[in-house]
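Q: My collaborator sent me two sequences in one message, no labels, and asked for predicted structures for both. Can we handle them in order? The first one she listed is below.
A: Yes, handling them in the order given. First sequence, followed by its structure tokens:
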Amino acid sequence: MTNVPHTVLVVAHAQREDTVAAARRVIAALQAADARAVLPGDDADLAAALSELRGVGRLGDDAQVDEIDLAIVLGGDGTILRAAELVRDGRAPVLGINMGHVGFLAEIEADVLDEAIRRVIAHEYDVEERMALSVRVKDAAGDVVYETWALNEATVEKASRERMLEVVMEIDGRPLSSFGCDGVVVSTPTGSTAYSFSGGGPVIWPSVEAIAVVPLAAHALFARPLVIGPDASVAIEVLTRTDGSGILWCDGRRSHDLPRGARVVVRRSEAPVRLARLHPAVFTDRLVAKFRLPVDGWRGPAAPSGPGAA
């Protein structure tokens, strides 16, 4: 088939029998369609679990990231975030098949795996772009000492549980407020149902381009969640008066220590994350299903009764 994705990265949780078994099914179907299956190069456990399979390559050795046409992920949101990290320097979209718990990033559930594989092989999917964040850390002298990115959120947190972090927050180059806190979450709409939500932040529909800023356990009168424009910049400085240090976490996967005087600058990334979608998804329905929200008693909109009726 000319439309078959030629090289597919298969990412699965190697410690779970169900995800490994699902990976075998995916790889067998891809190979039957003359596509090349590739495993993450740094996942020795997954390679060992699938060692009986032949013709399966490794990312970095047998295929480079710019050769990957699609990443199929079998697992929860953590595994999907890992896959997004693996293909970050390429153009491959990520298709998440939920085998975890909430699985907000996943496109489908595991019980329709075979149908998903069929549609992937037939190239029956669309690609949705999600806003990502560019994150820079500067030292007290203003030099950039660390750069990374985030799909869900960038979080400045206190490094020691027993100590408060003193920060000052800046929006678009102007100071907004300083306070002691446990941390500050800077989130995309995609991440608004993750750590930001747990910290009291708003749920932002994926179609809305915005950045949420959510202080965590702040000792201040003005420390409410903020929603700012997608092209705004957020800076969080660790004040020199803080008793201790902080740490930056991006998507819970990449971290960097923040000594006193460090400055974290977060803005929209020029490179979005690409998600493969098999069917149009109504975010309201996804929200209800994933959070198990009660909708008993809903009658729905009234049927139109005449010209122009709503």
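Q: And the one she listed second?
A: Here it is, processed independently of the first:
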Amino acid sequence: MAVDNRTPVTIIGLGSMGTALAEAYIEAGHPTTVWNRTAAKASPLVAKGAVHQEGIADAVAASPLVIACLTTYDDTVEALKPAESVLKDRALVTLNSGSPAGARETAEWALSHGARFLDGAIMNVPSAVGAEDTLLYYGGDRGVFETSESTLKVMGGDTVHLGEETDLAALYEMAVGGTLLPALVGFFQGAAVVQARGLDAATLVRFTVKWFEMINSVLPVFADEIDRGDYSQPASSVNLFLAGAAHDAELGKEANIDVEWHAPFHDLLRRAVAAGHGDHSISALTEVLKKPQG
């Protein structure tokens, strides 16, 4: 008779992402315990095979691997406080938003109660959980990562350990995530512009995707310029971007849309020119973003 050695997992927090995680583990055949402050959210998962524990200490005690998927680090610590006595020797994986400082503080709290700590970030949407190309990265206890890697990959096949420092996942999540809102607002502005001409926002999608593919292709070039600190061979200069800034106001007037969100970017371009970067690569804006030390 075959022995099922799939690791039992507890999921803390059943929002859209936590629910997707629990569903992935149930589908993969892992004994799955779930807990949520609003217990009713567990019912659909119980129908699929999960075990619901009303007490969080019982939920934590049920599995050697505990995955907390709450909104913030503060929410995670607050929810787990009643389970402090059963955290010892358990692997605690946190998958919430927050700053590197929040990750370090949460790690300190978890370690003080004997838990083994791994902080992570899911770089995709709930519907992508479990896909081979879904990226999750982690910082913290390498032993937890190596022992649990196959179990962690249930959540996404592109699973990376960044290093032993407990705040690395939060650091990279915020570093990478900084591109999201500007990119989305740019698309939303485009949608408003074409709708002002009686066109559908859907007509933008194909062309915007190609534009993002172009951006993707030049990121390695920009990263190399930044790492070398050499901006002297620009494909696109700061001055070129600044010259185009005037067109934003013209477009706003013609389409009757608010383009004031561009103002900080235009200011950054002007500051770069004032700092002597006008003829340098647009990646030189990195230097302007850095504040003086001390």
